[in-house]
Here is the input.
Amino acid sequence: MIFDQVRGIASDLFSVPADHITAGSSPHNIESWDSIQHLNLVLALEETFSVQLSPAEIEQMKSIGETAKLIETKLQANLR
Amino acid sequence: MAIVIQPYRQEHESAVGEFNDRLQRWSGDPNLVFSETAVPRWLPPRTNSAVWNEYFVAVEGSTVRGAYALKHEQVFVRGKGILRVACYHHPLSEGIIDPSYASIGGLLIRDALARQPLLYALGMGGYERPLAKMLKVLGFSLTLIPFYFRIVHPARFLRHMQALRQARWRAILMDIAAATGTGWLAIRARQAAWALHGRSHSFDAQEISEFPGWADDLWNEGTEYVSMAALRDANTLRVLYPPDLHKTRCMLVSRGDAPMGWAVVGQRRGDPKFGELRVGSIVDCWARPQEAVSVAKAAAEALEQESVDLIVSNQSHQVWCRALEKLGFLKGPSNFIFAASKKLTQLLQPLEQNRASFHITRADGDGLPSNF
Here is the structure.
């Protein structure tokens, strides 16, 4: 569920069809995932999921799979 | 391993050197280097100094993956008084060469904002450049600072202005215009038409080695006419333009014994877009509005005496823009952007009304070491 939402955001930002985005998608295989779009991704995730990402967390966003996992962890922590 | 952004210390210097080497191997761009000394050569921190630089590095283990600089300074904002702000400059990220580090550009800016929310950046080379785009994403307001130029030697301008000679057909036309003198006539006529109303009152101009107390008086009087300006009182000017800084010349413009204003001029260092042209710049200036034409004229004449081929200036304040136009300067395409953070932008409201009376020149930001 979270993965699908993250994938949807990434699809819009990177102008890549959602079905082309996998857990392994990263700046290495999505050409438009540059530093500007990375920042856009951070801001979009913060707004969509109402979370604040720390520098260490932002740095963990190496792929869509890791990003989705990070958001899941943040949301679960917020529920506790 | 986690990336940690921390103040740049001597122990990081060799890692910064290796970081620079990696960027150079990839880009070959000599501008993509960060200071290899932890203590800034330009505006190092000093006791009682209102303006100084501070460097930060993004470190992964013992490897430097990014760096940026903050120029701490004070600005006058109408209705708010003197505020401490910082200029964000020289950001560099390993993300330029390795997509694994795409996050670093954003981390650097967010780190700078956490340290000084009243943040600005200047220059950047146009709206399409990565830094300008990132700042826009983060909600910075962007203002283009007008660019003015005056051609002193039309034939040399036509033959050497590389930025305009990229297309072969245009280069041929420019060569013909230079050889026949038609270019000289056209340029002189255009500039003269603008300069018809550029007569100034009499003035005396003299080179000065430092800014004494009259600079404070001029600063205090001038703030009445600006909505925002970096501090230009005598103390700050002495720090920005020390007597041993030979790259620029400081001038006092006066009438009789009364100081009217001051200007700083200099020849820009080599730039491929200007080819072999000698490019003079009106770097900085300050005066009461009614004296702006005289001060700008004194500055332009000082540069003409240095035999420059072209005089350029970036000026944001409408009074200085009009003064340059009255002196025959033409307005050219600008890529010089002032970007203010959200918090700083809030203090500059109403922005649309106030931006015409911002006083921003090439001396602001990191313009002095970058261009001269």
Summary: The CA atoms of residues 28 and 75 of chain A lie 27 Å apart. Chain A touches chain B at residues 26-28, 33-40, 42-43, 55-56, 58-59, 61-62 (CB under 8 Å).
